[in-house]
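Office hours follow-up: a student asked to see two folded examples consecutively, so here they are.
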Amino acid sequence: MGFRICYLASEAPPEELVEKLGLNQGDHIDEMPDGDWWTAKLKSSGWTILWSEDEGFGKSAKEQVSKLSQKHRTYICEVNETCMWSSSELWQYGQQLWRVTHAGDGEDKFDLTEVGELPKAFAELKQRHFQTQKNTDENVDYIFEIPLDLPALEIGFRHEDHLETEDVEAFTIIYPNEPEKRPSLLSRIFGR
């Protein structure tokens, strides 16, 4: 089936990231969760990963990410392997510095949209993946990797990486806030 997720990587501590995004923190667990929302701070790079099972979470949280990025650089990475869509963007100083997206479900297998001033490593990464794509007869989408490889160079994590307990300070389950339930008209009338 493939991944259909969004993850954020931030220099913010896990507790602050969860709070600033308006989420709820749950229990610490021993193993990397599967199918849940979670957060963990990587020991190797110090970046906090916030994993969302909602691929649209990054789009809906841009206002909160903008505020968070005034103090902590933050990446938003989106992955939809069912249609080979990938995207990453870096936020700092309250604004998006750059964004790279790939839509692999169209006719152009070299589709890549670039916005903003990309890091120096981007040019080499793009050239390498484009060359691999040109030189292969396989039905593999190498351009899909570019938006995901770029932040991984700094944070040391990609969506398909399996993290072990010793790779992180702790795995913590997180929960999106449920919409506030308003009492029904009848319960407001009768005071229930």
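And the second, which I mentioned at the end of office hours:
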Amino acid sequence: MKPEDSASIKEKKVISIGTVRELTGLSERQIRYYEERKLIFPARSGSGIRKYSFSDVERLMDIANQMEEGVQTHEIRREWKKKEKASEDWKKQMLKGQIQAHFKNNKQ
């Protein structure tokens, strides 16, 4: 298996809410609440059944740990948005550097 395959497997939305409940120890009500608060984004099957990924399970565990520490859902969402923006900015800088290096090397 290639490294990129494991990343795509981790993101596949194939896990039912019942299995997520068993894996995380959270109730279905808690899981749905985190979805309502825009902290988790399950896929929906044609019949409307929620499907989660392994990444979603990890995220739910992180949410539960932070909630136990007294962090509010809006604070969790704000921090994740900051991290996502920083990651996007970093990717843009890397791409910009690669493009500049490519054109610099081709001119020589």
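Two things to take away from it. The domain at 1-70 is CATH 1.10.1660.10 (Multidrug-efflux Transporter Regulator; Chain: A; Domain 2). The two ends are 39 Å apart (CA to CA).
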